[in-house]
Each structure stands twice: as C-alpha cells, then as structure tokens.
Amino acid sequence: MADNPGTIEHKVTFCRICEPLCGMIATVEDGTLTALRPDRDHPLSAGFACQKGIAFTEVVNDPDRVTVPMRRTADGFESVSWEEALDDIATRLTAVMRERGPGAIGWYMGNPGAFSYAHVLSIMAFIKGIGRGSHFFTASSQDTNCRLMASQLLYGTPISVPIPDLTRTDLLVVVGANPVVSHGSFLTAPRIKDRMHDIVKRGGRVVVIDPRKTETAAQFEWMGIVPDTDALLLLSLVQVMFAEGLAHTHAIDSLVDGLDWLRAQVAPFTPEATAPRTGVDPELARGLARDLAATPRAAVYGRLGTCVGRYGTLTSYLLDVVNLVAGNLDTPGGSVISGLGVPGQRMVNIGMGALLRRTYRRKRSRIGGFRAIIGSEPAALMAKEMQTPGPRQITAMFISAGNPVLSVPNGDELEAALDSLDLSVALDFYLTETTSHCDYVLPVTTMYERDDFPLTFQPFQATPFRQATEAVIAPVGQARQEWQIVGELIGRMSHQSRVFAAITRSGKALRRIGRPFTPRMLADGIIRLAAGGDGFGLRHCGFTFERLSRDHAHGAVITPHLKTGVLKEAISYLRGRIQLQHDDIAAEIAMVSTLSGPGQAFPLRMIGMREARSENSWMHNAPLLMRGDRGHHGLMNENDAAELDIRDGSAVRVSSPYGSITVPVTLTKDIMPGVIAVPHGWGHKGTGGWKLANEAGGANVNRLTSSEPADVESLSGMAWLTGVPVRVERA
Ligand SMILES: Nc1nc2c(c(=O)[nH]1)N[C@H]1C(S)=C(S)[C@@H](COP(=O)(O)OP(=O)(O)OC[C@H]3O[C@@H](n4cnc5c(=O)[nH]c(N)nc54)[C@H](O)[C@@H]3O)O[C@H]1N2
Ligand SMILES: Nc1nc2c(c(=O)[nH]1)N[C@H]1C(S)=C(S)[C@@H](COP(=O)(O)OP(=O)(O)OC[C@H]3O[C@@H](n4cnc5c(=O)[nH]c(N)nc54)[C@H](O)[C@@H]3O)O[C@H]1N2
Ligand code: SF4
Ligand SMILES: [Mo]
Questions:
Q1: Burial environment of residue 358 by CB neighbours within 10 A (0 to 12, 13 to 18, 19 or more)
Q2: Which stretch is the leader sequence (predicted)?
Q3: Which residue, 352, 325, 321, 344, is CA-closest to 162?
C-alpha cells in the first residue's frame, strides 16, 4: 500500500458489518482511514449506507482498540510481542493436545467471522488439523442452524437455502424478520426497504407476521402473533390449502416424496384449532393461505424470529412447505434456491450433502448428545463443555469475532467457565465481556485492513452480484488477519498433526516457486468457477479475484434476476426429489400440538429487538452511534404495564426461570399483549476495554435465557431466545 505523505485517496470498497454489503468510498489520508461515505456508483446500494456503516471509521480509529498482543496478568493486561505470545500459545496448546487429546480444544467463531472468507477457511483448516474430537462452535446456533437443518431434511443438504425473489414478487410475507432495521438476513439485498416498497408500488403487498408492530410492520401490513407459535400458524396455512383444494398438488407431485404423509400431518390444524394459541384470527389465516396459493408471484420469508423459538427446525421446514404447496417454490417471484452457478452444481450438492449428512449422524456433542450442523455444536452448551469433567472436556479455548458472554444463553455461567480454563485465546480488537477473561487477546485487523470477497453470502443475493475488494489501509498498529495468526500457530505445531504438516509443506513448496500461500487462492478459485467467472481461462474476460477488485471495483451484477427452474440442482438426495416425510418432523409436530401458554409464575413472554444503531454487542463504543440519551430499554404493552402499575420509562425487574435483570421500559400499543421485547448485546463490562460501551449501562438479556440441554432445540441445537417465559415487576 503506497501511502505517500500528504496524499488523500478515495478508495472503492464495501461494508461488511451486515448482510447487504453496501458499497462504500473510503477516504484515506496519509494511510489513515478518515471517512466513509456511501458509494453512489454501486449498482445495488446506489448511494445508500446506514449510520453503522458510516460510523465504522470510529471503530477503526478507536482509542480503546487493541492494537498489540495482550497477555492477562494478575492485575490487568500487559502487552507482549507477537513472537512471545504465539510461542507460548503453541507450546501450551501442544501440551494440552499431548496430555488430553484434541477433544480438550475448542473454538467459537462469532458473527463477524462469516464476513471474512479467510477467517472461515483458516479456522476450518485449524479445527480439522487439531483432529477428531475437537469442538467447534459458531454464532449460527443462536441464528441459522435450524434453517440449515430444515434444508438438510427437505433437500438433503444444509447449504440449499431458498430466498424470496424480492425483485419480482407481488406478495411478500415476512415472518419474524425486521428488515427495515436489520437490512435483511439470509438475504443480501441492498436498499431492502426500497425493494419492499417497490412491491407495493407495483400493486403488490407486504405482510409482516410478528409479535411486535416493528419498524417494518409499521410501513406495511402487520399481522400480530403470539411468540413461538409460528409453526402452528404455518401448519394451518397448509391445512387450508389442502382442505380447500388450493394446493398445487399437480405441479409439485413430480418434485416431492411424501405429499400424502404431509396432508395427513397437517389435517388436525385448522385455523380455528390453532387460533387460541397463535392469536391469529382464523379468517385472516384462511385469507392469507388463499392469497398465497392464488397469487402467481408470492413468497414467504422467515428469519430470526422463526429460528430462535423452541421449534426452529419445524418452523423453517414449514416455511418452505407453505411455499411449495402454494406453488411458489422455484418460480419467478417465489422462493428460490440459487446456487453459485458452478459447473456440475448437482453433483457438488450430492457429494457435499452426503458428507454433511454423515457428519450429522456421526458427530454428537458430549453434553446433551446433540448432532452437528455443518460440523458445529450448540454454543449454548459451551460453558458446560468446559466445566463438566471427563474425556473431551474443553480446557483450551479460542474465541474469534465473538462475544458469547453477551450473545449466548447464561452469560454468567460462561464467564465462570472461561476463568477455569488452562488456556484461552481471543482474536478480537476490543477487550470485551468475553475477551477480558482470556489469557491472550490477539489484535486483528478490521474489515478495511484486509482484502475480501463475501463468500458466505453469495447464494443469498436477491440480485446475483459479485464484488471483491483489496485492503484500503494497512493494518493498524500490530494487528494481523485471523488467517495469518492461525497460520503462525499451524507452522509452530506442524509436528502435532498430519494436516498441519501438509499445510506447512504446501506453504513452503509454493513459496519456493514465488507464490504466496494464502486462503485467497481458494476464494479466487470459487470466483473463477462460479457464474461470471473466467472458468480458469475458458471464458475470456470472466472474473477472477483480481479482475473483480481492479476492473469492477463497484461490483458487477451477473444477471438481473434469480434463475428459476433450478430446484433439481439444489437437491442432494439421489432421487432428486424433496423429501417431506421425516420421523423427526412428525415428533416435532406432535410436540408443538401440545404447546401450552405461559403459567402463573411467568405470565409474559420475552422476545428480542434489534436497533438501528447497534450491531449485536459490538458497536456501542462508537460516539456517532451513542449520541443523545441512548441506552438500553425494553418495550412493553401499555395495558400490561397499567395492570402492573408500571409507568413509561421506569425501571422494571424482568425474571425468567433462569435469571433476572433490571431494565427501563418504554410503553407502547405496538406489541402484542403479554409480550415484552428486550434488545440483546447490552450490559457491557469489558474490564479495561471499551469505555463508552461500559458507561452506557444496560443489562445482559441472556441472563434470562437457558443453557440447559433440555432447553436447546433437539434437531439443530439452537438456543432458545424468543418466547421465553418471564415475570415483570416494578424495580
Ligand atoms: N441494526 C442492526 N442490524 C442487524 C443486526 C443488529 O444487531 N442491528 N444484527 C444482524 C444479525 S446478526 C442478524 S441474524 C440479523 C437478523 O435479522 P432479522 O431477523 O431481520 O432481525 P430481527 O430484528 O432479529 O428480527 C426478528 C423479528 O422477529 C420477531 N419475533 C420474535 N419472536 C417471534 C416469533 O416467535 N414469531 C415471529 N413471527 N416473530 C418473532 C421480532 O419481534 C423481530 O421483529 O440482523 C442483522 N442486522
Ligand atoms: N437474546 C438474544 N441473544 C442473541 C440474539 C438475539 O436476537 N437475542 N442474536 C443472536 C445472533 S443472530 C447472533 S449472530 C449472535 C452474535 O453473537 P456474537 O457473534 O458472539 O457476538 P457479537 O456481538 O457479534 O460480537 C462480535 C465480536 O467480534 C469482534 N469483531 C468485529 N469484527 C471483527 C473481525 O473482523 N474479526 C474479529 N476477529 N473480530 C471482530 C467485535 O469486537 C466483537 O467482540 O448473538 C446472538 N444472541
Ligand atoms: S446496512 Fe449494513 S452493510 Fe449497509 S452500511 Fe449499514 S452496516 Fe454496512
Ligand atoms: Mo445473527
């Protein structure tokens, strides 16, 4: 990076805080990032960026940022050299491996990890190299694993996930998502709010099913629902379609196995039968089922609110089933599984799916016996995996890009567990509630200090699109990229595993012929093989990593619309048909049908709430985002509050069977009675770390959620974060 003194440069790049990946122009003065503004020439975000994206300059230049390796001592952290830190970590890790085996080692990768291809790929290599029995956790068990599991059941592979064809649909039903605030998830669609308004402009509708009249629901049509009852409503929608002869049976008969089984399963769930529990008027439910089946271009889209209840896999499965039975799967304006467009996609899916299904069957968590989704275990059980003695007890733990003390159920338990480890290492740029418990905090680069290609999000783009970027500034201080840190450890431990030895050998061989050995080779390979790529020379002018970042800096649209009629390619089962019938699904349906309302002791239900100026737990130290009297507060129905003699703005004590917190509440009509919404990611106390965040106060809502195996969703290991029974009292 040539950063000549006195120069001001404007570099084209993109934001990687959340999923739309908005185009950005970075102003770099003398090698320092001084401003970020939205890129008007980005084909999709076209001059839009949100407050978080703009405020990221303050994260890069944050005086509280960790920019040198830190080691924990009896009285706080001290800086150490990279050599000293890496040597000591490798030595201690080797000792753990020798004495206790790979099963004593664990890694948790948090949400921002998914935005860096190199981070993901290097950890996968590391875990593989540590060997069988090691533990791998990600934020996905608080987020997406049930969605992946539903896909594994239906299509045979967790990686075939349908998205709504946003740009062509005429009826979009949004279930448990708040895209006006979240900017879309499992759906990469810059300016998503505008795209939803386009639907209305072309004469269509957007219906939002949510316990709260959210910022999204307020702009479109709101249908209130009792938390954690979506599965019942969706069963009713399918029941109506079958009972009223609206099901597109003829069209889908050749696509699926188990249609009669499904019909029998849903038969008891008439809208009248489920209404007392969902709170949805039976006529409204019937109307919605009819509209979905009759509108040629309609799609149901579910997100976090449908994943973090107790029936996440069933709910995700039913979302697809509604689309399928209504004739809206794999159709223009419907719900579409769009792959990367690599040659032999079906064969790739058959192979990958078989492998992942086998891992699912074979790998079980030590605590609770949960199966592994894409090789990952339930993070809700991480603390118990550290504290329960026996073979495979975790005694050495790595945490990259995560703040599980705030993001995982029962943060208190996790804090204690982290303190009990023989070795704990964080890869982060802040001293947080989590990292401040670690023996080492290794400083990493922010997104603007690394090259990138958003590999994870490619199949979820509403408009197929490619963009890659180079780093816009050099690493701040001594920060290093995650893959470089992992690489250093692998190099130091090459005698400990065959995988590490092979990686080290390949690295040396490549360097000898003058080629750098980096994960970029893999990302480049995928770009070249995928739609729009150069096919390794077969397609003249096709994309490579370098051509994308150099010649298409603002990004390139590949096709204006999603490809449809491609369902078969997405299916991993050899029969090439969707499998509807599963004993596990039947068992979940039986369970949800006995679902009871809240009891006397905990009469309310708690849900989550995302905020425009937060990103989970990690942007509360940016002054731009903390202006005004910004603080943590819950949201409560004003009638519920009146009964409890609670006034607007007053502090309340919220208690669940698992813990309690105190938080001020705002009163509103715009939430279902019996429901309280509390944002997560607050309650900062990163010792010696982010000062502004610590001063902001608030409480860790995950002191109210459960880390008991019985409360973890059985099929996919999802944490239970919504519909949690609580009691609210004046504080
Ligand atoms: N500004 C901002 N943007 C973000 C984030 C952030 O923290 N701040 N986080 C990012 C991350 S990590 C993610 S995963 C995405 C999430 O993206 P979204 O899923 O779009 O965002 P949420 O706000 O979590 O939306 C969940 C909605 O489900 C509702 N809900 C809760 N329980 C239920 C239920 O039982 N049934 C139904 N039908 N609805 C329910 C909630 O009221 C809420 O409106 O957002 C991303 N974007
Ligand atoms: N009650 C409740 N709990 C929830 C949720 C909820 O809705 N309700 N949402 C859940 C969801 S969807 C998610 S995704 C999780 C998120 O949970 P986590 O991923 O565990 O936590 P984050 O708050 O996203 O913390 C991200 C950390 O990564 C660091 N970081 C940022 N960028 C980088 C980077 O490039 N590299 C590295 N190494 N570090 C970086 C930040 O400093 C921060 O410490 O929370 C979950 N928890
Ligand atoms: S919406 Fe997300 S990707 Fe876009 S600027 Fe904001 S934080 Fe960045
Ligand atoms: Mo998430």
A1: exposed
A2: none
A3: 321
Name 9's Cβ contacts closer than 8 Å, sequence gap at least 6.
Answer: 27, 28, 29
Strands 105-109 and 135-138: parallel
Predicted local confidence at residue 465, as pLDDT: 97
Polymer length in residues for the chain? 731
If one residue of 25, 59, 183 were mutated to test the ligand 3 pocket, choosing by the most ligand atoms within 8 A of its CB, it would be 183
Three-class SS state of 175: strand
Q: What type of residue is 290?
A: R
Q: Confirm if 510 and 467 have CB atoms less than 8 A apart.
A: no
CATH number of 596-730: 2.40.40.20
Vertex 518: Cα angle to 513 and 520 (nearest 5) = 115
What is the block-wise mean pLDDT of the chain (731 residues), using blocks of 10 residues?
74 98 98 98 98 98 98 95 98 97 98 98 96 96 98 96 98 98 98 98 98 98 98 98 96 94 98 97 98 98 98 98 98 95 90 92 93 93 98 98 98 97 98 97 98 97 98 98 97 94 93 91 96 94 96 97 95 96 98 87 98 97 95 98 97 97 98 98 90 95 98 97 97 91
- Matching fold, domains 8-61 and 596-730: no
List the beta strands (DSSP E) in 514-645: 556-557, 578-579, 604-607, 634-637
pTM over 0.90: yes
CA 108 / ligand 2 centre spacing (Å): 11
CATH number at 70-143+344-552: 3.40.50.740
Q: DSSP code of 316?
A: H
The domain defined by 166-333 carries CATH number 3.40.1640.10: no
CB atoms within 10 A of CB 151: 24
pLDDT at 4: 63
Q: Give φ, ψ of 656 to 5 degrees.
A: -120, 175
Sign of CA dihedral 626, 628, 633, 636: negative
Strand partners, 36: 26
Q: In this structure, which ligand is nearest to the CA of 686?
A: 2
Contact present, 698 and 655 (Cβ < 8 Å): no
Q: C-alpha dihedral over 711, 715, 719, 725, to 10 degrees? A: -40
Residue listed under structure tokens 């010792």? 687
Contacts of 656 (CB under 8 A, 6+ apart): 602, 606, 704, 705, 706, 724, 725, 726, 727
Pairing label, strands 724-730, 651-656 = antiparallel
Tell whether ligand 2 has an atom less than 6 A from the beta carbon of residue 143. Answer: yes
The answer to whether 572 and 353 are in contact (CB under 8 A) is yes
Q: Best of 140, 148, 178, 310 to mutate for ligand 1, by most ligand atoms within 8 A of CB?
A: 178
| Nearest residue (CA) to ligand 1, atom 33 | 305
Identify the architecture of domain 8-61 in CATH.
Answer: 2-Layer Sandwich (3.30)
Q: What is the dihedral of CA 19, 23, 25, 31, to 10 degrees?
A: 40
pLDDT value at residue 686: 75
Distance CA 349, CA 338 (A): 12
Amino acid at 375: G
Domain ranges, ordered by start, for the chain: 8-61, 70-143+344-552, 166-333, 596-730
